[in-house]
Amino acid sequence: MIEPPRPADIVEYHRQLAPADREICELLATAIERGLPEARSKVWHAHPVWFLEGNPIVGYDRLKDAVRLMFWSGQSFDAEGLAASGSFKAAEARYTDVVDVDVDAVTAWLSAAREIQWDYEHIRTNRGLVKRTDF
Fold first, then answer.
1. pTM metric for this prediction
2. Could you tell me which of 13, 21, 64, 85 has the C-alpha nearest to residue 42?
């Protein structure tokens, strides 16, 4: 299977990271690309994010003390290993070393992310409310 090339803005995001953080992000990007091959990706709000039908699904960013992997609908997954993040339905995992990344867990979360989505794409038109999608 030939994998599509990674978007240039994500490649550039990775290039600017310290080597240890780059290694984590490369592993996460590869897992996401394999787990959600139909997703479109780009740097959105300064961080790599993958979208299904325009809805943000998963992304990651470098924080002060870790790389954060975030699933926009992650609080609704029936899976362990994610912590609630923010005031909507997002959940996250944080990594300080590439060996901390459990690719099997990430793959399971990606599978859940395909099935369970809250509509963040239309949050403004829904007056700040997130609604479950019918995808």
1. 0.85
2. 13
